[in-house]
Write a structure and sequence with these properties.
Number of strands: 8
Strand content: 5-15%
Number of helices: 8
Helix content: 25-40%
Strand order of the largest sheet: 4-3-2-1-5-8-7-6
Number of domains: 1
Structural class: alpha+beta
Order of helices and strands: HEEEEHEHEHHEEHHH
Length: 232
């Protein structure tokens, strides 16, 4: 893993905290550019405190490979299973961002309301852990089988909600995954607010794709701003 990639991953943790997506919990990972069967993620710690030296390596079955014997998050299986199922995914974010939670526990479906969130597409799937593990779980994705059931619900989408838990967001690089995680939370806030005024005119599927493609061309612009704000 290059020094720059470690630094970007550590920075992404701080950005996501600063932008209200992560708090004392949640995590972001990046697939190894040299070995697609491995990914990198911080050791088990609060995201705001992550530095480059805190990064550990994990395989796609969720086994940690670290010369110092450090542990990572219990829910590393979210990442391992998605990377295994989706070769196109290079970065994964799992968060409990608050505005998103209501859309996983009600009949209201999260849909793109503005051009910044076109990546949500026509449907944002909701993962129900009860379908895989019954009604007595702690809602955590704590083994590979649960991770695989989540990855199946995510399918080819960019975001999946997790009932009573949070969400997972994927991207083809760290900057894209961070962008999507931040604007998923933003879209949820806007959609909740707009619903108070009446029927919402959501983006069409074609508009969602066009806006998402356009935003992907400009990921550096918000990244540099988020970076500056996070490092103040």
């Amino acid at each position: 893993m290059t020094t720059q990639l470690r630094e970007d991953l550590a920075l992404a943790n701080k950005i996501l905290v600063n932008e209200g997506v992560l708090d004392g919990f949640g995590h972001i990972s990046v697939r190894s550019p040299n070995n697609p069967d491995r990914f990198f993620i911080a050791r088990s710690m609060a995201p705001a405190l992550v530095e480059a030296q805190d990064i550990v390596e994990v395989d796609l079955d969720g086994h940690v490979h670290d010369s110092q014997g450090r542990r990572t998050y219990v829910e590393r299986f979210i990442h391992s299973a998605i990377y295994k199922a989706r070769p196109d995914v290079m970065s994964v974010v799992h968060s409990h961002s608050p505005a998103v939670i209501p859309f996983g526990v009600t009949g209201a479906r999260l849909r793109p309301i503005c051009h910044m969130s076109g990546f949500l597409g026509a449907v944002t799937p909701v993962y129900e852990i009860r379908h895989s593990a019954g009604e007595n779980t702690d809602l955590l994705i704590s083994n590979q089988a649960l991770g695989e059931s989540l990855a199946q619900v995510l399918g080819q989408s960019n975001v999946a909600l997790m009932r009573g838990h949070g969400s997972v967001t994927v991207g083809n690089e760290i900057k894209q995954a961070v962008f999507r995680a931040i604007y998923t939370e933003s879209n949820a806030r806007l959609q909740s607010e707009a619903s108070r005024f009446g029927e919402i005119n959501f983006l069409t599927e074609a508009e969602a794709k066009a806006t998402s493609d356009m935003n992907d061309l400009h990921l550096d612009r918000p990244w540099e701003m988020w970076k500056r704000n996070a490092l103040k």
